Amino acid sequence: MAMAIAAPLSRPRWSATALTWYISAFIFILLGSAPPASLAASDGGSAGSDNNGDDDDDPCLLYLAQSTIPNAGLGVFAGASFKKDQQVGRVGDAAILTVDQNWHLSSEGVSVSKGEGDYHWPLTNYDWNAPDIGCEWEAEDVSVTVTGFGAAPNCHFRLINIAEHKATYDNAGLDRYKSPGAGASTPWFNRSSTALWDIEAGSELFVDYGQDWFLTRDGVFELVPVADSFEKAQSFLKHYGELLVGSTNPDDLVEDKMALDEDARRDLWDIIRTFPYVTRERQALPVNHEDAIRAIHGDIQAIEKENSVRSVQYLKERGKCMDNIVPAKSNIPHAGRGAFATRLIPKGGLVAPAPVVHIADKSSTNMYNEKIGRHGNIVRDESVIVTQQIILNYVFGHPNSTVVLFPYSSNVAYINHHATEYNAEVRWAKDFSFYHKNEWLSKPVDFLEEQWTSGLLLEFIALRDIQAGEEVLINYGDEWQAAWDEHVQKWHPSNSDTLWTKTTDNNTGLSEYLRAEVLNDDMATPIRTMAEQAVEPYHSSIHFKCYVNVNHLSPYEFEPLTRPYFKREWDRRVDMRDDSDDVHYNACNVTLRYESDEDDSGDDDDDEVEEGAGAEYLYTIELEVKKEFGNTFISEFHVITDVPREAIAFVNLPYTSDIFLKNAFRHEMKLPDDVFPKAWMNAILEN
Ligand SMILES: *[C@@H]1O[C@H](CO)[C@@H](O)[C@H](O)[C@H]1NC(C)=O
Ligand SMILES: *[C@@H]1O[C@H](CO)[C@@H](O)[C@H](O)[C@H]1NC(C)=O
Ligand SMILES: *[C@@H]1O[C@H](CO)[C@@H](O)[C@H](O)[C@H]1NC(C)=O
Ligand SMILES: *[C@@H]1O[C@H](CO)[C@@H](O)[C@H](O)[C@H]1NC(C)=O
């Protein structure tokens, strides 16, 4: 009694037998309903290209291949095994900031302020919150695009096997007073990913996007199961088992007792899986009916875990190696980092696959000046484009189009330009049709704009043999070269930093720029007090924060007439406890410095008490703290004495790092004429 199978996206065609009715009701009741969503067909594709980790002594560590999660598109797989806590891959990923985008892009208006923007910026779906990366202080509103692990792996709550860490600020030695490359590349480097437990070779890698990420993206992404969905799916399976054998007893789940034969079970399972209303719960069900039966009294997760491993052979044949390049200091002057081959890449071989996020209008990277608005507030001045977001330097475009493409796989962001001695080029993938939608290349830009998930795959291909250790270079195009030449010619070293945002701020900087990280690493040099800073200031980008607990037990009975004043000694038990919610890094001023007088280091009886550098100093700090009590704001003044160096930190002010330099270079790379789709050429060159 085989049953007809419903065609995806059409009303069910099978005859309305009692059983079908029962099943429909059953699916609705147990899995809930949702608007119809497309059931993307998937295929395998075959990527077998040269240089795909065939050497067993030097396995490719990471592959891009079809995800084991149905409809999830691309997945990242371990090409070798990784031990718990081991870094997965050779170097962490680059992180690229996009700042104050709502302010710059939200719909036109006289008094644009921060709020929900309705601009089309598909990277929103790939971005991380700044605190996850450690760069939240860079600007008022920061979101971060992370390449590689930050964007390519899937999230599967029950199978997460990768922990991600913060990035480090490291601008590869580009000095803002000496290099025209300063601020032209992202300084956020090495956002590393480690194994949460031992990972076997072939495993798909899953990172945690946070449940909210999925719940807020219905209709944009395929409905990906979240933790709840699995519980519901598991309980659905129990009912399914009962339907098959009329009992919930595991012992009854045997072939003879089944109401349906194997073919019928397969058909029935297909109906359930392809029922025209997709829900997260249904997506959590096992794909094939054998797994469904195993999971009735088992665990969907255990079966999924098994199913989330591909053979290394499969990866070699049908995956694309993402581990052929690593970042290191570039040979190209002012370029910062470059991408270097980890192994021989033969002529015609794959350097790196590069899934791209398409951005329909590159003007969405524009950043505008500020002006004083009608009501005395600061508003956007659209007549002055001050610069573009730094991500512009990492996208491919074409002068005759508004479309730009951001490649997001590991390390391709580091591939530099050479106008003549390039050894690689970019082309469209010819396979991976489960992901790469070749038909988009002939669709108009309006169509692209409505596609909210990425669906295009570029490949970097070697034009000649590239030796292990050699830098990979492509040609960014004549327009890029001309723009860079002009930039270098016009650029001149300057001791006053001109930073672009906040024209209302005074950013002249009286001393050489030195980052807080550098000052913090130097624990030996005493911190200059306010009086000393008046003579010998720190750079204007530097402020202080202190570990202090400014809470106190005395509540205000009435609003004080004068500013409450508190003075006390710093106390480690109160001011630097890790476990206390009351302890915060507060903005502070350092007003006095004195040598620590106590001699309680009794065991250190060598009379060599260090003087000068290394001597222990204590500090007096002052801070103003604004507190809110109901509708009343009270500003308190605290003076805290005997504060040790370790409780004081230098911090960088927002809008002061190199990417905010007004004269930092911005230009997209060009995708060659024969690669960039004609259908997207919606802009005619003006000259
Ligand atoms: C990247 O970060 C990891 C983890 O902090 C560290 O072990 C590794 O040495 C760093 N790699 C580079 C190239 O800085
Ligand atoms: C900016 O700072 C410089 C140096 O302290 C000072 O001379 C100048 O007056 C300041 N400008 C404004 C607008 O505050
Ligand atoms: C530090 O001192 C300056 C100048 O007196 C003052 O404007 C600022 O508010 C002080 N900062 C704190 C945190 O008290
Ligand atoms: C770009 O536009 C210009 C001006 O219309 C045209 O001459 C040129 O051929 C176009 N380039 C391509 C690759 O179509």
Automatic annotation (TrEMBL):
Pfam families membership: SET
SET domain ranges (all copies): 323-477
Entry keyword set: Signal
The keyword Signal appears for this protein: yes
The keyword S-adenosyl-L-methionine belongs to this UniProt entry's keyword annotation: no
Signal peptide positions (record): 1-40
Domain of life of the source: Eukaryota
Record-given protein name: SET domain-containing protein
